Amino acid sequence: MSDSIDQSSVNAITGFDAEQRFDFLVAEVIANGELWVLTDDLGSVMLNTDDEDCVPVWPGRAFAEQWATDEWSECEPLAIPLKEWNFRWTPGLEEDGFAVVVFPMTGEAEQDGLVVSPEELDRALTKALKASRG
User: Fold this and answer.
1) pLDDT digits (tens, 9 = 90+) for 81-118
2) Which of 12, 28, 105, 110 has the fewest CB atoms found within 10 Å of its own CB?
3) H or E element, residue 8
4) Is 3 domain-assigned?
5) Helix, strand or coil for residue 113?
6) Residues 55-74: what's their mean pLDDT?
């Protein structure tokens, strides 16, 4: 999460819907060059929807840490550099048939994240990166 995000901004983000959180994550990943997952001894945390096995991702450490409660309390946030996400994680998740759940929220503001394919997230990140370079 960029240093410019203050508590009032965090409060506003908790009111975002899944699409707005997706857009926020893309902007933060481009600004900071990384996205965040939770890991444990077995690897990345996985969530299950009715149709998909998903890897949850967040735009910053603090948001990932908020998720690390209850059954995930032993999990640690891990930053994934954007290049590593593009060239290692996206193809690996695609090959394994996993989806990505973008920026789920927990606690009082609990909301599901937007479930997308790894390729769809990669395309959004690539498009935003190209736009940021003019």
Assistant:
1) 999 999 999 999 999 999 999 999 876 656 889 999 99
2) 110
3) helix 7-13
4) no
5) coil
6) 88
DSSP 4: T
CA neighbor of 82 nearest in space, from 41, 21, 28, 5:
28
**75 lies in a domain?**
yes
Domain CATH number, residue 36: 3.40.1350.90
C-alpha to C-alpha distances, 27 to 11, 24, 35, 68, 118, nearest whole angstrom? 18, 5, 11, 23, 17
The reported pLDDT for the residue numbered 98 is 97
* Amino acid in the structure at residue 113: G
Question: For residue 33, what are its two tokens?
Answer: 């060059």
Q: How many domains does the chain have?
A: 1
Has this prediction a pTM greater than 0.85?
yes
